[in-house]
Amino acid sequence: MRSQANVVLVPATVRTKKGEIIYALKPEQFVVEDNGVAQKIQMDEDTDSLGLTLVVLVQCSRSAVAQYARISGLGTMVESLVGGAPRQVAVASYGKEATILSDFTDQADESSAALKNLEPCDDSEAATFDAVAWATAMLEEHKDHNRHAILLISETRDHGSHKKPAEVIAALGKTNTVVDAVSFSPGKSEMLDSLRYGGGSGMLGLMVMAVNAAKKNAPKTLASLSGGEYINFTTQKGFDNGLHQLGNRIHNYYLLSFTPQPADNGQPAPGLHSIHVTVPDYPDAKIDARQSYFAGALDGASTDVPDTPDPPNSPGPR
Predict the structure, then answer these.
(1) Which of 160, 159, 77, 169 is nearest to 132 (CA)?
(2) Strands 177-183, 147-154: parallel, antiparallel or unpaired by DSSP?
(3) How many CA within 13 A on the CB side of residue 106?
(4) Mean pLDDT of the 114-118 span
(5) What's the total number of domains in the chain?
(6) Structural domain includes residue 10
(7) CB 298 within 8 A of CB 286
(8) 56, 106, 131, 316: which is deepest, by most CB within 10 A?
(9) Residue 231, domain extent
(10) Where are the alpha helices (DSSP H) in 228-289?
(11) Residue 42: inside a domain, yes or no?
């Protein structure tokens, strides 16, 4: 499936209003819209049997120094997240730049050892967008047919990236990479309701809204757009519970897919597309699913959005 660039993967979790996962849904019960147009979808019946290629990306700089004691059990928890599926796991840390600690391996003890040896770094930057872009490229270079995912553990704000948020958002949408994010600096961010419910003013408008949200909370926005989970913690118990919640989702989501309908030139319209998933049989269900994908070239005007100044009360980049 990954070898076909025109196939869009849409991981989706369906819960009741009380938060209980709804199981055993059939493909015909889902409606998936691409920019408001319903698509013909397929569903993989056994996601746990699919391989997973994962980059565990942990911030080592700035406020991360105070959090390392709380994430000491990360190695064991990552193993439970992966489960029994065929896997390739790499581990990296980042401040100003990303550093690989353990290359892709199917040996759980190697990646666990790298996670146990995580250490804070003396760095004033936390270039989250740069690190996620680096991890996305690393996944693409590792040619396989597995699901591709990034487990991002970081504070909410980016500090010092050279990559533009739009470039990172586009690359995730282009490569079907899912970001699951666990953040340790609580902060408010706008939900991308305009993307989720099909609003916005054209594809550039969707990208502008996504970029503005990413500037406020990078991990949450990247997770929401790619179909991943976002968790915020302040204590070790919160971190442990968050990883448990994440594991529950990873092993119980529906993997939907569709082939975008071509425009006049035979290709999907270039730019950021909005994805909206519903289950009409459960109108009150809470659905967490990929909210966007990107069509066309990653460079050029399609990802070149104007900078928006920080709000009046924002502290701005630090």
Answers:
(1) 169
(2) parallel
(3) 7
(4) 85
(5) 1
(6) no
(7) no
(8) 131
(9) 49-193+200-252
(10) 236-250
(11) no
Residue with tokens 């902060």: 187
Handedness of CA 17, 23, 29, 32 (dihedral sign): positive
pLDDT at residue 146 tops 80: yes
- The residues that bridge with 292 in the sheet, in sequence order, are 274
* CA angle in degrees (0–180, nearest 5) for 192-197-200: 70
If DSSP codes are grouped into helix, strand and coil, which group holds residue 114? helix
* DSSP string covering 170-216: HHHHHHTEEEEEEESS-------HHHHTT-SSHHHHHHHHHHHHHHH
CA geometry: angle at 219 spanning 260 and 81, to 5°?
80
Q: In 161-191, which positions are buried (b, 16+ CB within 10 angstroms) versus exposed (e)?
A: bebbbbbbbbbbbbbbbbbbbbbbbeeebee
* CATH code of the domain covering residue 164: 3.40.50.410
The mean pLDDT value for 206-232 works out to: 80
- Other residues' Cβ atoms within 10 Å of the Cβ of residue 20: 10
Average pLDDT of the chain?
80
Residues forming a β-bridge with 94: 59, 98
The encoded tokens of residue 275 equal: 């994805």
Q: Do 228 and 61 touch, CB atoms closer than 8 A?
A: no
**41 within a domain of the structure (yes/no):** no
pLDDT band at 212 (very low <50, low <70, confident <90, very high): confident
pLDDT for position 102:
94
